[in-house]
Amino acid sequence: MRIDVVSIFPGYFDALELSLLGKARQRGVIDLRVHDLRDFAHDRHRTVDDTPAGGGAGMVMKPEPWGEALDSVLAEAEADADPLLIFPSPAGEVFTQATARELAAERHLVFGCGRYEGIDQRVFDEYASRGRVRLMSIGDYVLNGGEVASIAMIEAIGRLVPGVVGNPESLVEESHEADGLLEYPSYTKPARWRDREVPPVLLSGNHAAIATWRQEQRVERTLRVRPELVPRNMLPEELRGSRGRHAAGRD
Ligand code: ADE
């Protein structure tokens, strides 16, 4: 998979040289290239922002550097890769594990990291008229810019790209995968630590009992912290009825 990132802070993406994704890059499974937006601003101060049209607080990113940067990245794309442009934004669609799975099948992703009050709307309109553009939020809170959100999305997507994670089975039993429940708690040795025991069932060698216990833990934990994720047919009878926005259970 090819991934390009455009940002005024390329240094943020040094984190993606570490760990699994860093190894996948060394092996050539993921080809990640980071571009400095300021390289596409031509005045003495390499200006990328200006005051908002119509007035108001903050600054808006100018369209010209973005146009040059994205044209240059897209000119390098392979002929039939059909790159998808992703702009992290608190105003975008919410990025979930399902989104990560969908995007892991793409050949070429381009992340455009906005700062300040955002990017001039005409940049989105221009590239949406020429190809695929999606605004994506990583949650209902506001970051200072798209860099951290892009790193989160690249990690979530990248680890699902075939060949990045050594044992693909380890991807299956995770929170938000398969049945959408949260994962069960994990333990390792020693069997007793600071008077705290590993649950005896995990040391019993009874694989069926272990599987049952883990599934119960997943349902219990999900009901406690994220009841809206529990499928309605897994809910206790008394919680099945209501259908309001904050009601427990999904269909
Ligand atoms: N930029 C600022 N806040 C963001 C968020 N929550 N998700 C994605 N991009 C953002």
Q: Biggest sheet: strands side by side, in what order?
A: 2-1-6-5-7
pLDDT averaged residue by residue: 94
Globular, elongated, flat, extended or rod-shaped: what is the shape? Answer: elongated
Q: Could you tell me how far the N terminus lies from the C terminus, measured between alpha carbons in angstroms?
A: 34 Å
The ordered string of helix (H) and strand (E) elements is EHEEEHEHEHEHEEH
The largest β sheet comes out as: 5 strands, parallel
Structural class: alpha/beta
Are there runs of 5+ residues with pLDDT below 50, and where? none
Whole-angstrom Rg: 22 Å
Q: Provide the list of bound ligands, each named once.
A: adenine
For the secondary structure, the number of strands is 9
Strand content: 15-25%
Number of helices: 6
Tell me the helix content.
25-40%
How would you describe this protein?
There is one protein chain. Strand 5 (84-94), helix 3 and strand 6 (108-112) form a beta-alpha-beta unit. This protein has helices at 19-26, 63-75, 97-103, 121-128, 146-158, 207-225, and strands at residues 2-7, 31-36, 49-50, 60-61, 84-94, 108-112, 132-137, 192-193, 196-197. The mean pLDDT is 94. Helix 3 packs across helix 5. The strands form 3 sheets. A 5-stranded parallel sheet has the order 2-1-6-5-7. The chain has a two-stranded antiparallel sheet with strand order 3-4. Strands 8-9 form a two-stranded antiparallel ribbon. The protein has 251 residues and is α/β, with parallel strands linked by helices. It contains 6 helices and 9 strands; from the N terminus they run E-H-E-E-E-H-E-H-E-H-E-H-E-E-H. Bound molecules: adenine. Adenine (ADE) is lined by residues 88-90, 137-139, 141-143, 146, 149.
